[in-house]
Amino acid sequence: MNNLTVDQLKELLQIQKEFDDRIPTLNLRDSKIAYV
C-alpha cells in the first residue's frame, strides 16, 4: 500500500460497502477504486 492513512482505508471500506449495496452513483466510486 502506498501512503494509505487509516482514514483513507475507512473511506475505501465504506465505498466498498456502498458498492456492494448497489448504490447508483457508480462513476465516482469506480474512479476512486481505480485510483487505488
UniProtKB/TrEMBL annotation:
Source organism superkingdom: Bacteria
Protein known as: dUTPase
Annotated organism of origin: Staphylococcus aureus
